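#struct-pred
JK: can someone run the complex with guanosine-5'-monophosphate? inputs below
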Amino acid sequence: MVKGILFVLSGPSGTGKGTVCKKLLEMEPELYLSVSMTTRECREGEIPGVTYNYVSKEAFKGMIDNGEMLEYAVYNGNYYGTPREAVDSLLNSGRDVLLEIEPQGALQVKKLFPEAVLIFLVPPSMKELKNRLVSRGRESSEEITERINAARWELAQADKYSVHIINDDLDMCTQQIMDYLDEKRSERRKIYELINEEV
Ligand code: 5GP
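RT: done, C-alpha cells with the ligand placed:
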C-alpha cells in the first residue's frame, strides 16, 4: 500500500492558515486534518475535540515526556502540539494528513519526517499582514508588533519549505495549494508504481 503524505501548512501569524485550511477541507473532505492539543483556553465558538483537544500544562508536559508528541511549540505562553499516534496510523493506512501549525513546529516535522511536504503561506506584504492582525482584533498592539517581528524571522526560514504560496486572493491561493497537493500525490504514485513494476 502507498503510504499517505504528510502535508504541513504553516506561515506567520495572520497569513490566514486557518481560513485556507477550512477551505481546503471543504474542497477535499478526504484530507484528514490532525486535531492539535493545546493548553490555551477554549474560545467562544470552538468545539473541544474538533477545534483542539484542550488539556492542562501538566497533561501536555506528560505527553511530551512520554514521546507522544510529533511536534510541539510554546506560543503566547501556551503549548500547542500534534499527538503522534493518530497521524502515524493514518499515514500507514494510506491516508493523507494535514497539519496546520506555526513555523517552529513545522521545522520540527521536517527533521522527523524529511519526506513531509511543507507549504509556507506568505502574506502579500508586511503592511497587509499587520492589517489582518489588527482587523481580527485578538491581540494588543504590543503583541501585534511582536508577531510582525516574529514574522520577519519566520520569513527568513522560507527556504526550508517545499513551496511558498502567497495568500493574496483566498480562492486562488487555495486552488494553488490543491494543485500542488495533486502534483505531489501523482509524483508519489508514479514512484510507487516504478518500485513495484515487474520486469
Ligand atoms: P490559536 O491560538 O490562534 O488557535 O493558534 C495559535 C498558533 O498555533 C497558530 O499559528 C496555529 O497555527 C498554531 N498551532 C495550532 N496547532 C498547533 C500545533 O499542533 N502545533 C504547533 N506547532 N502549532 C500549532
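RT: quick notes.
Residues 13, 17, 36, 40, 71, 73, 75, 80-82, 100-102, 104-105 surround guanosine-5'-monophosphate (CB under 6 Å).
The CA atoms of residues 35 and 52 lie 6 Å apart.
JK: thanks, will look after standup
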